[in-house]
Design a protein that fits this description.
13 strands; 7-stranded antiparallel β-sheet; globular; alpha+beta
């Protein structure tokens, strides 16, 4: 049976994990490889399980002055994760993955190899110097909302309503990436396990 995107998995200790939404972006280097590496790094982090990660989309770079088509374009994706970490520990884990992939922070909203943001953390509302939840600009960003909707059609952004309705009001859209596929979807994999005959036909061995 495939997992319900609205039902966090339960850990062995019997404590439900928190379902969080992570936005991923890259506009420097091998962007598609970086996003895939980031999803794998997330899934390999103790206390984090990636449930699904969207197909990458392309978007114009955003700067402090607004969209800038002279800057390298972004590839963006969204991942659904279940986590035992608290929000700041999750943020620290994301920053660690960014650093491991060459992220630097000399220029605010500058070009970057990898950018990972927490969009929502369960139903938590938080406003601290380090972290605001839900993400304060997510409702305005097609490159967050569209990939999120792809992997969770019933998604809601706290304080703003259904993601589908937010997308309908956006003035801009992302662009599809030719040949791109979902970075990860355990729900699909679990509902489409090949039979023994299928595995034989595909040359798959146990």
């Amino acid at each position: 049976m495939s997992a319900d995107p609205h039902t966090p998995t339960t850990r062995a200790a019997g404590t439900p994990a928190t379902r969080a939404v992570i936005a991923l972006g890259s506009n420097l280097g091998a962007r598609d490889e970086l996003l895939g590496d980031a999803v794998r790094a997330l899934d390999a982090t103790p206390g984090i399980t990636v449930v699904a990660a969207s197909t990458p989309v392309s978007s114009v770079a955003l700067t402090l002055d607004g969209p800038d088509e002279t800057r390298p374009e972004y590839l963006n994706a969204v991942a659904l994760v279940d986590t035992d970490l608290d929000p700041l520990a999750l943020l620290d884990a994301l920053h660690g993955i960014e650093s491991e992939h060459g992220r630097t922070r000399e220029v605010r909203w500058g070009d970057r190899t990898l950018d990972l943001d927490i969009v929502v953390f369960g139903d938590l509302e938080l406003d601290t110097e380090r972290l605001t939840l839900p993400h304060p600009r997510a409702s305005e960003r097609a490159f967050v909302l569209e990939p999120w909707f792809e992997i969770d059609e019933e998604a809601r952004l706290g304080g703003h309503g259904p993601v589908a309705a937010l997308i309908a009001r956006l003035p801009d859209r992302t662009r599809p990436v030719t040949g791109a596929t979902r970075l990860l979807d355990r729900r699909r994999a679990s509902s489409a396990i090949p039979s023994a005959d299928d595995r034989h036909d595909q040359g798959v061995t146990a």
